[in-house]
Design brief:
Elements lengths: L2 H6 L12 E2 L14 E6 L10 E4 L13 E6 L2 E11 L13 E4 L6 H13 L4 H8 L5 H5 L23 H9 L5 E5 L8 H13 L3 E5 L3 H15 L4 E4 L5 H12 L5 E4 L11 E7 L16 H12 L2 E6 L4 H9 L3 E3 L3 H7 L2 E4 L10 H6 L3 H11 L4 E4 L5 E7 L15 H8 L36 E2 L9 H4 L72 E3 L6 E3 L18 E7 L1 H11 L5 E4 L7 E2 L5 E4 L6 E2 L3 E6 L2 H5 L6 H13 L2 E9 L6 H8 L2 H15 L6 E8 H10 L7 E8 L4 E8 L4 H17 L7 E4 L6
Parallel strand pairs: 1-3, 7-12, 7-13, 8-10, 8-11, 9-10, 11-12, 14-26, 15-23, 15-25, 21-23, 22-24, 25-26
Antiparallel strand pairs: 2-3, 2-5, 4-5, 4-6, 16-20, 17-20, 18-19, 27-29, 27-30, 28-29
Helix pairs in contact: 2-3, 2-9, 5-6, 6-7, 10-20, 18-19, 19-20
């Protein structure tokens, strides 16, 4: 492969590990001529000792000490675990060698292919081999290892179901798999109750027919259970195993051994299955790669998509990245030429896609009394009522319970701090122009700002049209305004909608007059946007509300009382004005899944209400009438599909201060919409003018992903570049930045404060081609800190999902 081909890959090739180290201990021996040497990966997380060590193989272990077995060795005076990587005739170490203490088991659990993959993953993510091997090889269970399971009787496979017929490139993709070739594709799946599992199962069957193995990774156990049933029907009994953490250590190890011993050639599982020892891998597939469950929470924090892409490249296997939506990372693979798109014809999309109706206009609330009572626009109520006549309906709510927050009554944007900052001014100065870019995308402190025009809504409803209310007892710190903490607001202080009134609104003056320094120059209620930069006034580059250096952090309500405070600078003040238009803020509370279910239950007393979320996830619901209230990702599958759906609080998904907010919003909406019957009605409570909403209306995730990638390339964010973060105490982060030898083209952003515990974070950005150099530099600097036993740990994360 040429250097140009390597540059197109999203993952850098990794050199073999340095094998010159040697294990030493008391009683060490010099290797005699012909005496075998074992190179061992010691279970030691210290980065400066991340290399194999040589040990002598005693004569008694000559047969059992084979590459891939678990061993026990002496290391730094302690007895530790390790994996025997390879045998050699001699050692490059000039001193004495310690012998192996014992072979734990003769089972060769670490294959050469997985060992090489683990080394590559560790180097790509600036981690250690020991940390990756903990993820790759499950703990030993002696009883399961001693079992000899009977071979399952093969079942006849059914005829091809034709799940790929709707895709013009589908037939050629299956043909390539069946003939042992290695196509790489990004698949935009069609919505519908038939689901995604059957096309994936057909791709696995084609791979098995070609004589090679297959590996499929999905976000969670619910997806595994859904696909396991389909795989059993399409592939036949015993052709695959399902691996999840919920199986328990013994059963999971038992199934893992079936794969290792070649008794199953296909694996279906969650992110830990990316290292499953599938022999002769022919297909590596991942479903819904934008789900954050694919990102490992343990060091070195690898992402399943990147590990599978690296594994497919190393083994010459095919790669399939599937989802209803498309991520910017998958789009980058297409743009580089590493993968090709598989999309359905627009005619096929129109047949099965839902009929999407955005409901972001306040006029909807005035159409009937039910809409006013439950804070839902009439179009949403109509969709629920009509859908319940023929089957179950789905209501997606972004959160489980309540999230106190504040929004502007006039312009309905989430409230921002308009007071001079106490802590973030320095962060604004440090980051400066480095991470400001396209107007309206970045705030002055480097955090993503809410896009202009997000979430028109009824006054007091926090920028969205969901089920919102101010519960009793949610008072202000000022007893004269809202009845004080723990007391409901006085009736004369409330407007007609049950929310605190503002000056000029129905219900009297809800807020005292504010000093002029908080106002907007010119008329109140102005655009609040800088004409020159297009960014909110008061942010660097704008001309706004509280002048140069305004904080613009998101406002919230402190737990325990109703005093508004800024989440960035921590200021608490009874007098606030909108950082965009100058109007006073009105507090509101987003009602999540639990309260939504209660409200809908009262509105539809004869219909059973089912909830699915963190407190309990439903897998399936029947065809009968039912109201299903679920949080994103927990939506159960309905037999025959849902008759209708309502997606609440679109602003809550799109208005988050996160690089992936729009992408994540489209992904969650499309995953829910895909569960509907063809052409069923879907109501999304968000502004129709937003690009994310337009992507859902047209069912066009491709254009939205391409736009996301272009925006990130312009701003210098992943995946257009490689980026790493350093998180730790302020002194530790700054010390590491001073010592690390970064590539010449590297840009350091920050450090900036993270959280309220004194932690800081710095971001380092390099071109994609320099990602391997950056990872090596960070690993070396961490090794130096570990060698001198630095007291404060600096967490290094390469290409993290969350940058800020």
């Amino acid at each position: 492969m040429s250097e140009t081909d390597h540059a197109l890959l999203p993952l850098e090739a990794v050199r073999p590990a340095d094998r010159r180290g040697a294990g030493q201990a008391k009683g060490s021996l010099r290797p005699a001529p012909g005496l075998p040497v074992a190179r061992v990966a010691v279970d030691n997380p210290l980065p400066h000792l991340d290399r194999p060590f040589d040990y002598l193989v005693p004569e008694s272990m000559h047969e059992s000490a084979q590459p891939g077995v678990r061993v026990r060795v002496r290391f730094a005076g302690k007895l530790v675990d390790g994996f025997l990587l390879e045998r050699a005739e001699e050692s490059e170490h000039p001193g004495k060698l310690a012998p192996l203490e014992r072979v734990v088991s003769a089972e060769r659990v670490l294959t050469a292919e997985v060992a090489g993959l683990a080394r590559a993953v560790a180097d790509r993510y600036a981690g250690t081999l020991a940390d990756v091997l903990r993820l790759a090889v499950p703990p030993r269970h002696a009883r399961a290892e001693a079992e000899t399971p009977a071979e399952p009787e093969p079942q006849p496979e059914g005829p091809p179901a034709g799940a790929w017929d709707a895709y013009p490139m589908g037939a050629s993709f299956l043909d390539a798999l069946e003939h042992g070739r290695a196509p790489r594709a990004v698949w935009s799946a069609l919505p519908g109750a038939a689901g995604w599992a059957e096309p994936v199962a057909e791709a696995v069957r084609a791979t098995l027919a070609g004589g090679r193995g297959a590996l499929v990774v999905v976000p969670d156990g619910k997806d595994v259970a859904l696909a396991d049933e389909v795989f059993g029907r399409v592939l036949g009994s015993g052709a695959h195993v399902a691996l999840t953490a919920g199986l328990g250590p013994a059963e999971r190890y038992r199934r893992w051994l079936r794969v290792l011993r070649g008794q199953a050639r296909a694996v279906l599982g969650t992110r830990a299955a990316v290292f499953a020892p599938v022999a002769d891998l022919g297909l590596a597939a991942i479903w819904d790669d934008g789900d954050d469950l694919h990102a490992e929470r343990l060091s070195p924090y690898p992402h399943a998509r990147e590990v599978l892409a690296l594994r497919a490249h190393r083994t010459g296997a095919a790669m399939l990245i599937g989802g209803y939506a498309r991520t910017a990372e998958a789009t980058q693979l297409i743009a580089s030429g590493w993968a090709r798109p598989i999309v359905a014809a627009r005619e096929s999309v129109r047949v099965v896609a839902p009929r999407v109706k955005p409901a972001g206009e306040d006029a909807e609330l005035a159409k009937d009394q039910a809409a006013r009572a439950a804070r839902l626009p009439s179009v949403a109520w109509r969709a629920l009522r009509e859908g319940l006549e023929s089957g179950p309906v789905l209501v997606q709510v972004p959160r489980r319970g309540y999230l106190p927050s504040i929004a502007c009554r006039q312009c309905r944007r989430p409230a921002r701090c308009a007071l001079p900052p106490t802590r973030v001014a320095a962060a604004q100065t440090r980051i400066g122009e480095d991470i400001r870019g396209v107007s309206g995308l970045l705030g002055g402190s480097g955090l993503l700002a809410v896009p202009e025009g997000l979430g028109p809504a009824d006054p007091g409803r926090l920028g969205g049209s969901g089920l919102l209310a101010v519960p009793e007892g949610l008072g202000s710190a000022d007893p004269g305004r809202l009845g004080g903490p723990g007391r409901p607001a006085a009736p004369e202080r409330l407007g007609g909608s049950g929310h605190p009134a503002v000056p000029g609104g129905a219900g009297g003056s809800g807020h005292p007059a504010l000093p002029e320094r908080h106002g907007v120059p010119g008329r109140p209620g102005g655009s609040g946007m800088s004409e020159s930069s297009g960014m909110p006034r008061g942010m660097p580059g704008g001309s706004g509300v509280s002048g140069r250096g305004a904080c613009h952090g998101p406002l919230a309500l402190r737990s325990g009382h109703g005093a508004p405070h800024c989440r960035w600078c921590g200021r608490v003040d009874a007098a606030w004005r909108c950082a965009h238009c100058g109007s006073p803020h009105v507090r509101a509370v987003v009602v999540g899944a639990r309260r939504t279910a209660e409200e809908l239950g009262r509105a539809f007393p004869s219909v059973p209400v089912k909830t699915s979320g963190r407190d309990g996830v439903l897998d399936r619901v029947g065809e009968g009438r039912a109201l299903v209230v679920a949080t994103p990702g927990a939506e159960p599958v309905a037999e025959g599909g849902y008759a209708a759906a309502v997606l609440l609080d679109g602003w809550a998904l799109l208005g988050r201060a996160d690089l992936r907010a729009a992408e994540e919003g489209v992904r969650r909406w499309m995953n829910a919409a895909a569960l509907l019957r063809p052409a069923a009605e879907l109501v999304v409570l968000a502004d129709m003018g937003l690009p994310a909403v337009q992507a859902l209306v047209r069912w066009d995730p491709v254009t939205h992903a391409e736009r996301e990638l272009a925006d990130r390339a312009e701003l210098g964010f992943p995946p257009a570049v490689r980026m790493a973060t350093l998180t730790g105490t302020a002194a530790a982060v700054r010390q590491m930045l001073e010592e690390v030898r970064l590539p010449e083209e590297a840009q350091v952003l920050g450090p900036v404060p993270v959280g309220d515990d004194g932690q800081e974070r710095a971001m380092i950005r390099v071109p994609r081609a320099s990602g391997g150099v950056l990872a090596a530099a960070l690993k070396g600097a961490n090794g130096v800190r570990a060698a001198r036993k630095a007291p404060d740990v600096v967490r290094v994360s390469v290409d993290p999902l969350e940058l800020i």
